[in-house]
Structures are given as C-alpha cells and as structure tokens.
Specification:
Blueprint lengths: L4 H7 L24 E5 L6 H8 L11 E2 L2 E2 L5 H10 E4 L3 H4 L6 H11 L8 H11 L16 H13 L5 E5 L7 H18 L2 E6 L2 H5 L4 E6 L2 E7 H6 L4 H8 L39 H5 L5 E4 L2 E3 L8
Parallel strand pairs: 1-6, 1-7, 4-5, 5-6
Antiparallel strand pairs: 2-3, 7-8, 8-10, 9-10
Helix pairs in contact: 5-6, 5-7, 6-7
The chain binds iron/sulfur cluster and magnesium ion.
Length: 315
C-alpha cells in the first residue's frame, strides 16, 4: 500500500492530520522493456500519482518502485543518478510545463548541462539534434515557448525529456490539451521515437481511445486501485470489468464488439472516503450485495489478464 495521505489531502484541501488517503493502493504494475503500457482512469483515480512515483518525482511511503529489477530507493551515487535520468516524464499541458522565461535551447539544454552529458561547447549541437528528432526546426531554438503552437510546445516537452537519453518515458496526459488532429501527430511521433530510440513508455490518459492504438497492454485504475490489466486488443475485444466496459461505452467510434455497454453514471466519489467493498459499486450497473461489503481481489481471468470483479466468481 502506498500511503500518499499528505499530498493528496492537500490537493483536496483537507486537514492532513485527519485523513489518510490511499491514492494508490495495492497497485502492481510491471512494464517490460520496449513495451507501451497504457494507464487509464478518470481524473482522481491515482494514475498521475503512480506516474510520478515511477518517474521518481514522488516516493511511495510503502511499497517499491523497481527499475531494471532494483528497488530505486536503495540506489546510491552513480546508480541512483543513472536510474533518475533513464526515466523521464513528459507532462500534461506543455504551456504550464515549460518555463516561459527560458528560450527553447535553455529548456532543452538544461538537463544535459547540469548532468554533464554534454560539455559547454557541445550543448548547442546537442539541443539541435534533440529538436530535429522531434520534428522542430533547430533554427527556432532561440525562441520562447509562447512563440510556438500547442503541438510545437508538446514537441519541445518531448525534446527536453529526450535530451538526457532516457530508456523509459512516463507520458502523463501528454496529448490531452491538443486538438484531435495534433494529438494524432504527437502520438505518431511517440511511436516513431519508440522505434528509433528503443523506448519504453508508461502512457497515462483519462481517455481509453487515446491509448488504444499505441499501447501493447492497458491497465485500468479506479479510485486508486487497479481494476483490470491485459493486452490492449483483448481489453477492447472483451472488456471484463464493468468500469472498463463503461469507459469503452464513452468512446464514440467504439465498434469492435457487437455488445453495447452502458455508460458510466454519476460522479467519481472522493478518494478520501471511498465506498466500501468494491469502490465502483455505487456506479456499477451489475452491483450485488457482496460488492457493497467485500473488496474484489485482482484475479487472473485469462493468460496475461487480470480483473477485480466479483462477477468473475459467479458462473
Ligand atoms: Fe460491479 Fe460488483 Fe464487479 Fe464491483 S465487484 S465491478 S460492483 S459487479
Ligand atoms: Mg492526472
């Protein structure tokens, strides 16, 4: 269990001494080298918290984040630095993620300079290469973020992450702020970079439709708990968990199955006082008595697939 009480409670404006929030509770997620793992859920489900912990920006108060098989909290010196650099994050909303007072060459060149990856005379060519890689004209490197379009700013954010030569990138709603046509361009860029640079991604989105085409596997979270995980095609073809089914029902173009699922009803409850039993029961069209009292465990339902729903016990 990862108790992120204080941070989450502050975000929610609550008295930190009085509440304990398990923002991410019993989440077990392994991502294989070279794969794209989509992490999906409504806002407030804990997926950003999980992403920040994976990227080393927040520490779990319990549990472990392992990178290349090692608990990152136990790493020291060069090994700790290496792990920190090899996992980078690309944030939501590039406008607020980029310092408006810095030029693009300063934004992209900062980490390589600070970490000594490029010497003084090499930073310029380093930055130029990073910009070229994301499809930006290096001649624009002396400009400021506000002089770029939303799609270009997204590219700058990606160039900044790539500048330290990561293996693993956590994308947190990285295309959410963009128009649909620009979203597609940036998703294509992510996929091209994966091929070229042999990258692994954790791709976080509230929108199952966004992660569909880029994810090898998809993990679905609800109120801090993992509810379903499996290969992307299988999740779309035969969604098991009622919450996953509800998310699919919200995708306008969803037509991979003849089944129709009912859309999700009601608001997401507060993570401070989540419903007992299955957190999803107040919104679930299939809830029965057991759901109100007993937490469903994440169980294997097929090779490589897990789901946490009592319906899987009923036959
Ligand atoms: Fe719905 Fe019950 Fe399954 Fe939860 S455990 S998703 S409430 S049927
Ligand atoms: Mg978020």
């Amino acid at each position: 269990q990862l108790d992120l009480a204080e941070r989450t409670a502050r975000l929610l404006g609550a008295n930190v001494r009085e509440v304990t929030v398990h923002a991410v509770d019993g989440v077990d997620l392994s991502i294989r080298k070279g794969e794209v793992m989509g992490l999906v859920g409504e806002s407030g489900c804990g997926k950003s918290t999980l992403g920040r912990m994976v990227a080393g920006l927040d520490a779990p108060s319990a549990g472990q984040i392992r990178f290349r098989g090692k608990d990152v909290s136990t790493l020291k010196g060069a090994e700790a630095r290496e792990a920190a650099l090899k996992v980078q994050m690309v944030f939501q909303d590039p406008m607020s993620a980029l310092n408006p007072r810095l030029r693009v060459d300063q934004i992209v060149g900062e980490a390589p300079r600070v970490h000594g990856l490029a010497g003084r005379g090499e930073i310029d060519s380093y930055v130029e290469a990073a910009l070229q890689r994301v499809g930006l004209d290096p001649a624009m490197r002396k400009r400021y973020p506000h002089q770029f379009s939303g799609g270009q700013r997204a590219r700058i954010g990606i160039a900044r992450a790539l500048a330290v030569q990561p293996d693993f990138i956590v994308c947190d709603e990285s295309v959410a702020a963009l128009d649909v046509s620009i979203q597609a361009q940036i998703l294509n860029l992510f996929m091209d970079l994966r091929e070229e640079l042999d990258l692994t991604y954790l791709f976080i989105s509230h929108d199952l439709g966004v992660v569909e085409h880029i994810s090898d596997r998809i993990a679905i979270m609800y109120l801090g708990r993992m509810v379903e995980q499996g290969p992307s095609e299988e999740i779309f073809a035969t969604p098991n968990h009622p919450y996953t089914q509800a998310l699919l029902a919200e995708i306008p173009t969803f037509a991979t199955t003849k089944k129709t699922y009912s859309a999700i009803k009601g608001e997401i409850p507060s993570p401070i006082d989540p419903p007992p039993g299955c957190h999803f029961h107040p919104r679930c069209p299939h809830a029965f008595e057991r759901c109100r009292v007993e937490r469903p465990a994440l169980k294997a339902i097929a090779p490589g697939r897990v789901s946490a729903c009592h319906l899987n016990d009923v036959s």
